[in-house]
Design brief:
two-stranded antiparallel ribbon, 137 residues, 3 helices, mainly alpha
């Protein structure tokens, strides 16, 4: 079957291709760029385990950092809670609410400073929460 047979019909021309010597025919060479990629793709078990170990360490570091940020935020909230409580007590004392005689009066300057600190604390916490939310998304 050296010459392929061809058959002509009204619909067109058909060829029969010999498949006897298929394994002996030469194949095109694989391009060098693909050979390099093939070598790169081979990963040993040790390399894979090392990559997994590094990934786990990164995950643990991220989790530790997140826990640290949460603890800092909680501490900041506790401080702000005490400051707001002090301001509410001062307001209750000035309004004449009974049972507030033991509260020492605060000067206007001290109250203004405390209000400023509370405002800065809320700004700091809200920006931290916003950045954490953006990191999640």
């Amino acid at each position: 079957m050296d010459n392929p047979k061809h058959h002509e019909s009204p619909g067109g021309l058909a060829f029969s291709v010999p498949l006897d010597n298929m394994d002996q025919t030469s194949r095109a060479k694989i391009p060098k760029r693909l050979l390099r990629k093939r070598d790169k793709d081979r990963v040993t078990r040790e390399q894979l385990e090392e990559k997994q170990k590094l990934a786990e360490e990164r995950r643990q570091a991220q989790q530790d950092a997140k826990l640290q940020r949460i603890q800092e935020c909680q501490e900041e909230c506790r401080k702000m809670n005490m400051q707001v409580d002090a301001l509410l007590q001062q307001d209750a004392k000035r309004s004449g609410v009974p049972g507030m005689k033991h509260i020492k009066p605060m000067s206007r300057k001290q109250a203004a400073t405390l209000i400023n600190k509370v405002s800065q604390g809320f700004s700091k916490i809200s920006s931290n929460i916003q950045s954490d939310v953006n990191n999640i998304v």
